[in-house]
Amino acid sequence: MNTSALMNSLSGKSESEAAEMTIQLLRAMPPERYFEHMANMEALWKQHGEEREREEIVCRLLASGMPAAEIAVVLCKRVDEIEIIEQNNAATTIPEYVKKLKERRRRREKQK
To answer: Taxonomically, which superkingdom (predicted)?
Structure first.
């Protein structure tokens, strides 16, 4: 079973069935193909993790009120990259961070 066939057959399966089918596919791979696959997946996970962390930092800075141009200077990014992140997260992530920031500030004021 190849990867695309596996992906097509996984739709509608329970989590345990999908896990079992994935294990079967990995066992059927030749060792050199398996290690190549794992190296590619590790690189992909690392890249996605780093990208997600950078995006989270940008969202937090935007939520604090910092302009995109300043964030670009601080993070050595292009302004359009920051604006794209802002557009992609404007409806969900950024308002969530704004809310958390306001709660944190409220708690600090109560402690004083």
So the answer is: Bacteria
pTM value is 0.57
* Residue recorded with tokens 């994935």: 22
Distance CA 85, CA 58 (A): 7
DSSP state of 30: -
3-state secondary structure labels for all residues of the chain? CCHHHHHHHHCCCCHHHHHHHHHHHHHHCCHHHHHHHHHHHHHHHHHHHHHHHHHHHHHHHHHCCCCHHHHHHHHCCCHHHHHHHHHHHCCCHHHHHHHHHHHHHHHHHHHC
Q: Mark 36-70 as b/e (b = at least 16 C-beta within 10 Å).
A: eeeeeeeeeeeeeeeeeeebeebbbbbbeeeebee
